[in-house]
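User: Show me sequence and structure for the first protein, then do the same for the second.

Assistant: Starting with the first protein.
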Amino acid sequence: MRKAIIEFSIKRPWVVIGITVLITAFFAMQFPKIKIDTDPQNMLETNEPTRLFHAATKDNFNLYDFIAVGIVAEPTAFTPDQLNRVYRITAEIADLDGVIADDIMSISMVDDIKQGDGGSIVIEPLMEDEISTDAEAKHIYNRIMNNPILRGKIASDDGKAVAIFIPIESKKISHRLSTQIKEITDSLGGNAEYFIAGLPLAEDSFGAEMFKQMAISAPAAMAIIFLLLFLFFRQIKIVIAPMVVAMMSVIWAMGLLIYTGNTVHIMSSMIPIFLIPISVLNSIHIISEFHDHYKKYKHKASTIEHSINELFVPMLFTSLTTVAGFLSLALTPIPPVRVFGIFVAFGIVVAWFLSLTINPAIAMLISDKTLRNFGKSDEEHGILAKVMHSFRNFTRKYYKLIISSFAVIMVIAAVGLSLIVVNDNPVKWFKKSHPIRIADAAMNKHLAGTYMNYLVFESDDEGAMKSPELLNYMLRIQKELAKDKTVGSTTGVTDIVKKIRYELYSEDSTKMVIPENPKEIAQLLFLFEMSGGDPDDLFKFVTPEYDKANLWVQLKDGDNMAVSAVVDRGNKFIKDNPPPVGVIVKWAGLPYINIEWQNQMVSGMQKSLASSFIVVFLMMIFLFRSFKWGLFSMLPLTITVMAIYAFIGFIGKPYDMPVAVLSSLTLGLSIDFAIHFIQRLRMIYKRTKNFDESFDEIFEGTGRAITRNVLVISIGFVPMLFSTLVPYITVGSFFLAIMIVSGLVTMLLLPALTQMFKRTLFK
């Protein structure tokens, strides 16, 4: 098979190129059919209980995802001019397509509960029209401060900030609406500062920006890789081949993903960035081998055959091990991660096949005149050769020091690994200087929070939520949750009952409690429904049958660790203090969904990494027919993973979605160098029967090829470090770290180990 592929590519280069171009065109034609999905909620299976319950909660209580607009004014936002601006801005926002106008929470649209004539309850708009006096502004402020349903939510206690919470039909329109809202605030806002935040906005905006970043980062990486290859080999026609292989691999993988009906999620959007470096690795090895031997053969076909024959086995196994690493992601419980792993693995197989066909085909079309001086630019005096000679001399002389140093590094790394914390927050996928991050920080500083969880109480009995026992139980949970600094506010039917009773008793604070008589509770709630307010406001907190109640838990921090702490506090209280008989308490909300898929992803990634590590180890033993060689080949991978993740632990960077998935990339790239080094060293020794001579030679062609790969990939992805999106910066940093660390371990530790164990390794 190998011989047939090589001969066909050499003898019929135009046929090979024509066939691959046609296949590439077919997959490229699928791109207009692309379906994009940036909703992290879809990280969970569609039948996942947490996801189903969240959807049911939104349906039962008629809830929508929301965008939050914050207005901060010094010394106070409660002036006639500023409140009138908020009034006009709210009216403009209410007319936007996709906004649920009736459910907007704003000073000009929420209802206030107060005492009417004859001891009745009146529910009317807090700010029914524009105002003209400071006294009116102060009255509005005081009414908010006396209302536990509104306090901290639509205005800060110091009066410097007010908020507009805008429910929307779908998270997918968040980015578009935020742009329109900004135009409104720029036009009507005056001198106050305006901030637009919210978890749906962060998620949708990331989706909009990630494709812009991909459109910049991927071509920039390709351009830099091309320039570096040209710097190494000095022939544009030669270095075109690996770029063609990379481009075709990406198109085939993404085209097949779209053709099979899969959506392009946040994860799958990164497939090109992952495939480009992996796709060019084999091509660089082939070109390096061709480069180093063309001056000997002076014949294209013979040099191509020699190069691929020498590299076929290591290239096959490096590709298979990388495929194993990414296919292991198919074992995770996260659908987008599974899709990502499967199609990256497909792209790697494509890249391996194209490396064996496109490279020879393009090489055969290059004239002998063009190749006349090819291979003469990297002799003994070349920079790479000198670097490799330094590595050779150092590892030969100080091999014991090298081995002991890496042993110490592994011990230190073990400490760093223990410091890793699992955390994520879609808002923090943006850099600190991004407007979404700035808005998030400002609004959560002044107000109750832009992250909303729900704690739902369910019973099979109608009217159960009018029970004094249950309402007092809810109050106890509210007080317990309020102890956590992340919780900015909790709101439920309890607050409505207490507020109505407070107003009925002429604002007597001692009466702001849950009545002991269920009939009185029923009367208070009936009074609320009949007092001119919108009943739907009540039914955001309790169902019309009063068999379910919804406690809003507003959070100032959306980090998974912070949200988990709140959830754990609530769960512990419920466990230690069970609710009344027949009542079930469950969590819902976007922040809660985020911690659920994060937990599943972490456990899934740990299992997939462990399984792929074992599979790769067994493959190495099979490849080298030796347990010891197999063990040594795993050291660059093991040390690279430990060192990089330990560094993450030491600097305090959270273990988030990109970091978790990058473990598979670490496995794929780190093992590549070890396979080439060991396989070629064994082949050289088989020919020379002399260890010292083999040791010297491995630092020539193979050593230079490994160094080229390290430099090309690590430098090629430096542009990603300048992205506005943190996951892309993380990916770029990992590429740099993986290549440098695994390259150094391969060229320092493996030679040192062969020096120390040469008598048993080379019998």
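Switching to the second protein now.
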Amino acid sequence: MIIQAKNFGIVPGVDAAQPLIRLAEYLKTVQEPCTVIFEKGDYPIRAEHLPLRKMYVTNTVGDNEWQPGEVPHENRAGLLLEGVNDITLEGNGAAFILYGRATNMALIECRNVTVRDIRLTAHRPDMHELSVVKKGPFWVDFRLDAESQYIRYGGKFYFVGEDYCTSFLAARVAGWIGHIDAADPGILKRTGHPFFSAWRIEEREDHLFRVYMPDALRFKIGERYELFDVRRKYNGIFIDRCQDITLEGVEQNFNYGLALVAQDSDTLTFSNLRFAPQAGGPRLMASVADFIQICMCRGQVTVQDSFFEGAGDDCLNAHGIHFKITEQTGDSITVRFMHPQSHGFNPLRPGDRITFVSPETLLCRGEAIIRQSEQLDEYNIRLVLDGAVQGSVGDVIEDIDASPDLTFEHNTMDRIITRGLLLTVRGKVRIRENIFEHTTMNHILISDDAKNWYESGCVRDVVIEGNTFKYCPEHTVCIKPENKRHAGAVHTGVVIRNNTVRTPSYYVKSADSVQIVGNHHEREPKLRIKDSQVTF
């Protein structure tokens, strides 16, 4: 069955907000596989015409981050599909451009959906780039990117856009401003606000400002600063409780949070993605936070043949959640989300296997099967188990079955402000033939913790092979579970082989059966081993 999007009023140059809603409602009624065809062109979507709804999205706005007047977890999406099956969206190069703040696209409780050949971006978003063009002993001249608009009011300057009016000095005390190196624009680091010590700002000409400050000599001509709100209230693509989702040829030039976040979903294939600033655009960052975050997912997750550039956090973070046991009676336990940025959904399914984990050692003991799972409120879930409770109040659980196999291959990443890959999944993980151009932290971090982010869990089968690792000031591969006491190996079965590494450095803690073999190191490698078995 073929459906022409234009028959629903979705045509280039016309606000697509309401027509997209009508199309989505119709697709719920379709009882056979169908393909929706979009014409190539630019489709504006005005955020104020999109309905508000609750969306609990992992690793986003924490309870202590909501501002007065905001309704927690209230969200909107430019393109929202919910409860649809066997649908293909053929974009043919269509560009959906958000005017105002919203999630770019959301797929909720969908099955067998393919989205192909579309571009997602935003019109003059609240992210602004300042370039250093000149300096003196006590002043610096900054050029503001041409897309940003601003006003002067009450002697102060403000960025203005569709639904924001943000002071130049917003987040003046924050440490997450993006700094882009003058000599190598691939190097993106977190830093403080460039105007932190300013005593006066004056407009020299359109989009050119002289900022007076006592520490002006620390700046370098050509370096850039990216200013943005780090709260992750809205995101790029949100996939929730879905199965068999394919994204192919999808480009994103900007999003206000995580570029792609998938939670409690099964079997995801992402190929030929381009998450990067628009070519020739005004900024060198594309995402406020991670490019891809995979949380409590299942089946096979594949990311391949894609390009990632300009992320405000990791390129990819794949993890589960450690839930803390707060009550235990017989075969029933109550478990709790422990991090304020992740809660409000229930990924613990009847039939799943769980294991009991010590927060101190991160070692697992025993298994039980979930017989019943009931979400009591945003934070608490009651489980009835088929099997002995081998943990106690204060321990955490890991859902063994909510941990996918992960393949990440033939991808290139550049200008990543933190890590390339952050991995804490026990499925089969294959990291093959990728190019890691620039990360500011570790190229690959294998973590696990039950004290801070509560992102689980152990890894059991990881192969990192055939990759090219370039600029990295920290470790090429860092295996560092956040256990407080070593009582045995947390991670096992990590093979690092046949890679080309410019600045080789490896850190291995509380891990056994680790092999670092057959790699081409362009200089003498650094190796630090703690309570581990490593073949090197």
